[in-house]
Design goal:
Layout: H1 2-26, E1 29-33, E2 37-44, E3 59-63, E4 66-68, E5 70-75, E6 81-82, H2 109-113, E7 119-126, H3 135-148, E8 154-160, E9 164-171, H4 174-182, H5 192-204, E10 209-216, H6 227-237, E11 239-246, H7 247-250, H8 253-266, E12 270-273, H9 276-292, E13 294-298, E14 309-315, E15 324-326, E16 330-331, E17 334-339, E18 342-343, H10 346-349, E19 358-359, H11 361-364
Parallel strand pairs: 7-8, 7-10, 10-11, 11-12
Antiparallel strand pairs: 1-17, 2-13, 2-15, 3-4, 3-14, 5-6, 5-13, 8-9, 9-19, 14-16, 17-18
Helix pairs in contact: 3-4, 3-9, 5-6, 6-8
């Protein structure tokens, strides 16, 4: 009898933890994690001239129609500042329109400066067989663009054909990036959307302004991911996409439409260059855009919508309403899955960047590492 009782107790001790573990696996909890939402905002007049000197009070941010309160603000290359004690009048914190050095919650402006002090610029270069003609001209245009960027900007240089090559990881060292540009060679088919998705994932893990500049000499002919998924990821990750393409891509209406929609949805621009001079002009335009962007961020107010959230940025006042505002048009909060104490972090979901690593883009874009 005692032996039977001992066996029953032993079985119960073994069975209960296993049952709990199975229940935890079968009934996981799902949470939507929404952190600070950052926006790159361009303001232009009807002729495309940039409007400068605007202040935080000139902007209204709406998420699903809910008015959001800006947390940080910056214009151009200036560091982002906390808005909690933004002052329009002279005071001990600085000149008119300056930000207070310390917010009411004890967060210093220097902490916020790290969020948007320069931009993280990822250059993605088409080295497919489309590029045999005009390859050197494209390299020259990219080189000039890299040299023209502000000192505060960090730059990464990737190239793609069928595979993605992370030739230079994100760095402030211009010489390292320029060597990577000059080392590229052309060949193989083009998996543009695969490579762009992987580049966006690398960009997404960084804080601050995130920009991807794509030079593509032709349409995509070997990707396995649709451009719509790539565009939505860029919007949700807060990465602006700029695309420079040649007439070869514009001759294909589908590619032209995709490039236009993708860049517009993320707050970037699409350019179609007829010759090497147009390529240089396009890169110059992108550099000017980065110099004149306003950076605004906010912590979303309570919102039951776990799907797509629409973002609208408006200008306040009759004098400013005539200007055009360009920014990303929304994002999708990323679900974070928790099973018991097992928590998956963003760094485990998003592929990490590796110096000089060449990865089959078609495989990694599917999540097969």
């Amino acid at each position: 009898m005692a032996k039977k009782l001992f066996l029953l107790i032993l079985l119960s001790l073994i069975f209960i933890p296993r049952q709990t573990a199975v229940e935890a696996q079968e009934s996981p909890n799902f949470h939507v994690v929404v952190n600070m939402v950052q926006l790159n905002v361009a303001v232009t007049d009807r002729k495309g001239n940039y409007i400068t000197g605007l202040r935080p009070k000139d902007f209204v941010i709406l998420e699903d129609g809910i008015v959001e309160k800006a947390a940080t603000f910056a214009e151009g290359d200036e560091p982002a500042r906390n808005l909690s004690e933004f002052a329009d009048n002279p005071g001990p914190s600085g000149p008119p329109g300056s930000f207070a050095a310390r917010s009411s919650d004890g967060i210093t402006a220097d902490n916020f400066a790290a969020l948007v002090n320069g931009a993280n610029v990822f250059v993605l270069f088409d080295t497919s067989d489309y590029m045999y003609r005009g390859f050197v001209f494209a390299q020259d245009a990219i080189t000039e663009f890299i040299r023209s960027l502000g000192k505060a900007d960090k730059i990464a240089f990737y190239s793609y054909s069928r595979d993605l090559s992370r030739a230079a990881a994100l760095t402030a060292d211009r010489s390292q990036v320029l060597r990577a540009v000059r080392s590229t060679v052309a060949g193989d088919q083009a998996a543009l959307y695969n490579a762009l998705l992987l580049t966006l994932k690398d960009a997404a893990i960084n804080t601050g302004r995130k920009i991807v500049v794509v030079f593509s000499n032709g349409p995509d002919n070997s990707s396995v991911v649709p451009p719509e998924d790539v565009a939505e990821f860029a919007q949700s990750a807060g990465v602006s996409i700029y695309m420079i393409s040649t007439q070869s891509a514009k001759l294909e209406p589908v590619s032209t439409a995709v490039f236009d929609r993708m860049t517009a949805a993320t707050g970037g621009k699409a350019y179609f260059a007829k010759n090497w001079r147009d390529e240089h002009r396009a890169f110059t335009s992108i550099r000017d855009d980065l110099t004149h962007l306003y950076s605004l961020s906010y912590y979303p107010k309570p919102n039951q919508n776990t799907g797509w959230r629409a973002i609208t940025v408006k200008l306040v006042g009759d004098q400013l309403k005539k200007y055009k505002v360009r920014t990303r048009n929304g994002y999708r909060p990323q679900p974070s899955r928790f099973s018991g104490e097992d928590k998956t972090t963003l760094s485990e979901i998003v592929p990490q960047s590796h110096d000089g690593e060449r990865v089959p883009a078609s495989r990694e874009a599917d999540g097969q590492r």
